[in-house]
Amino acid sequence: MALLARELRLALRHPADTLAAVLFFVLVAALFPFGVGPAPETLARLAPGALLAAALLAALLPLDRLFGADAEDGTLDQLLLSGLAPPAVALAKAAAHWLTTGLPLLLATPVAAAMLNLPVEAWGAAMAALGLAAGFLSLLGTAGAALTLGARRGGVLLPLLVLPLAIPAVIFGAAGIEAAASGLEARPYLLLLAALLAAALPLAPLAAGAALRVE
Amino acid sequence: MLEARDLACLRGERVVFAGLSFRLEPGGALLLVGANGAGKSTLLRLLAGLLRPEAGALLWDGADALADRAAHAARIRYLSHQDALKPALTARENLHFFAQLWGGEVAAALDALDLLPLAELPARVLSSGQKRRLALARLGLSDPARRAPLWLLDEPTVGLDAASVGKLGALLARHRAAGGMVLAATHLPLPMPGAGELRL
């Protein structure tokens, strides 16, 4: 908890990182109307997948600094010797990533959804899907960041490692938003997404903790 | 008591050191000296449990020290070459985080290295010597009931002025008087009377 509080305080002192991810998300969403043309039906058809993909890419941005900054300034050594278990360190990092990147993306969802002409009925489902998918990515990304720490091209390796694993989150998230947009029940898809998150919650920090220790 | 028996360490294919043995009694101090690249920092990281020895054993009171990493971590304070400070946090906030983990008084730890006047400044604006003092102030943080007996210091006096070296000397003397041990890698004279020397 002390680590989480510290991470949040650091994020508040450096709001640019969070802002960059949110702006990236909104700008990618804004590119779609230019690319596929402003026809409302086409856009609405694309919206669920585009939202998910844009959000996951935006959430990847701060990941390579998640442990990188701490490793460079020696903080990581102190954290590993601080008496905190490495998986607990990883879990705190993942939670901080979700709170400083996932949550702001969630708040920016209506803006991006409006640009993609997503029906207003589906905005609630879109926010829920994005929140869960971003949480899943925070956990996977923490494990990925721990594994690629110290690799020469870690920043490039990280998305290659994490994005394929995030495919299920895109499938269920987009399906949920699409269901809500066409007046169907989004709940089953969101529950599947929540199940993914529940599976990653213990596994990803354990993997990240083991990777940190080996380094 | 810390005892190293025939420690060896490899980095890649290169042998950094091998057959290294020494003992350190409570209250004792050992200076690690040697040329650049002789393996002083590597040895400190190994003693901290951050690296695995290739051969040999590290014993704490006769038992394998590295068998339980968490228990070993609780016994040591490690001052690395980097200061492990967050530039955006003030001096007080930087220490406060570790005080939450280890116990101890932030104000007293700051005062031990004469940092109280700088407590509210972000670490970003501190000079390199002041940052080093702040990193050293972390050594003063500990719950009196569960002190970390072994201090591993990597070039503790880099960038320090004479007055601060004196303050560090007082801190080290207090630690050793309470039965603590110090292992320091250095190129500069350290105020540690009666310290042994280990040449790598």
TrEMBL record, chain A:
InterPro entries: Cyt_c_biogenesis_CcmB, Cyt_c_CcmB_bac. GO terms for biological process: cytochrome c biosynthetic process; cytochrome complex assembly. One of its GO terms (molecular function) is heme transmembrane transporter activity. Its main location: membrane. The keyword Transit peptide does not apply. The keyword Ubl conjugation does not apply. It is a multi-pass membrane protein. It is found in: Cell inner membrane. Belongs to the CcmB/CycW/HelB family. Required for the export of heme to the periplasm for the biogenesis of c-type cytochromes. This is Heme exporter protein B. The lineage of its organism: Bacteria, Pseudomonadati, Pseudomonadota, Alphaproteobacteria, Acetobacterales.
TrEMBL record, chain B:
GO terms for molecular function: ATP binding; ATP hydrolysis activity; transmembrane transporter activity. Keywords: ATP-binding, Cytochrome c-type biogenesis, Membrane, Nucleotide-binding, Translocase, Transport. Coiled coil: none annotated. Residues 2-198 form the ABC transporter domain. Pfam families: ABC_tran (PF00005). InterPro entries: AAA+_ATPase (IPR003593), ABC_transporter-like_ATP-bd (IPR003439), ABC_transptr_haem_export_CcmA (IPR005895), P-loop_NTPase (IPR027417). Gene3D superfamilies: P-loop containing nucleotide triphosphate hydrolases. The keyword Methyltransferase does not apply. GO terms for biological process: cytochrome complex assembly. It comes from the Bacteria. PANTHER family: ABC TRANSPORTER I FAMILY MEMBER 1 (PTHR43499:SF1). This is Heme ABC exporter ATP-binding protein CcmA. It comes from Dankookia rubra. The gene is ccmA.
